Amino acid sequence: PVSDWVAVNTAARKSVPNPLAIAIVPDTAKAWVDPSLPTKKSLQAKRKRMTYRSFAEFMSERYHCDVAYLTLLNGSKKINNLKPRDTLIVPNVKPFTIEALTGAAYKNDEAMSQRHAVVDTKINQVRIFEAAPPALIVAEPGSTTVSASVRPNRGLIASFPITPGKPKFIKFGTWVVRNSVELPHWRYDQKLLDTGKRSSDSEALNIPPGPNSPVGIFWCGLSKPGIGLHGTSDPETIGRARSSGCIRLANWDAIRLPMLIRPGTTVEIR
Question: I want to staple 130 with a disulfide (CB 3.0 to 4.6 A). Which of 155, 173, 194, 203 is the partner?
């Protein structure tokens, strides 16, 4: 069952008996860290990449946590002076390797495009289900009668925590995935954020891609204009703070979406 967390937690403990591991800050982190990244949107629009602001931020997102937790595990002296090739105690998870991203755009897939996603704004969760199995057509021997037998329900294949939009901006209903892209640029439109209505292009800013982009490192656009599932620059707020209509996931979860859903997938927001 979707709500059977006892079974999920038991399986997790069996598959990962040791919750911590040792990791090395890779040399590739240098290309993704820039302490001088500005906070002002007009200055960000002049940059080529929305980088991390520290190696600690790079490593915390790589291992699915925040800087405060890395500090708890390793001490403030090490975290505040972190550099490439240093070793750290980190959560024992599959690392989010941002350096592997190429800006790929994902197309329709025969199986994944038939799947169904449910964005549940009541419990801040997106669930992804297999395609509905076709009805089983049965022809009785020696009879002209043909009957259709209902097959089992869709199987749940993935679930992620989310931050939904503010209640007044949530676009409830069933939509379809239209596009799916890594490292998206973001059109910063203050009017859209404040009112839900798009302003002219001359009033908007084009924010470059990167982990500190407000849409994170992945965009999955829906058939409702301006609405999509995407990453975030603030993973610690997932499940808490509200956005302006879209559905946010931590970057390490968002990047898994194109391996689960593709253009053509239906997305129900409820």
Answer: 155
- CA separation (Å) from 48 to 30, 32, 94, 208, 213? 15, 11, 28, 6, 11
CA dihedral 235, 236, 239, 240 (to 10 degrees): -130
Indicate the domain borders of the chain: 18-97, 112-269
Distance CA 232, CA 266 (A): 22
- Could you tell me the CATH superfamily of domain 112-269? L,D-transpeptidase catalytic domain-like (2.40.440.10)
Q: For residue 240, name the pLDDT band (cuts at 50, 70, 90).
A: low
Give me the amino acid identity at 223: S
The predicted model scores a pTM of 0.86
Residue 102 has pLDDT above 80, yes or no: yes
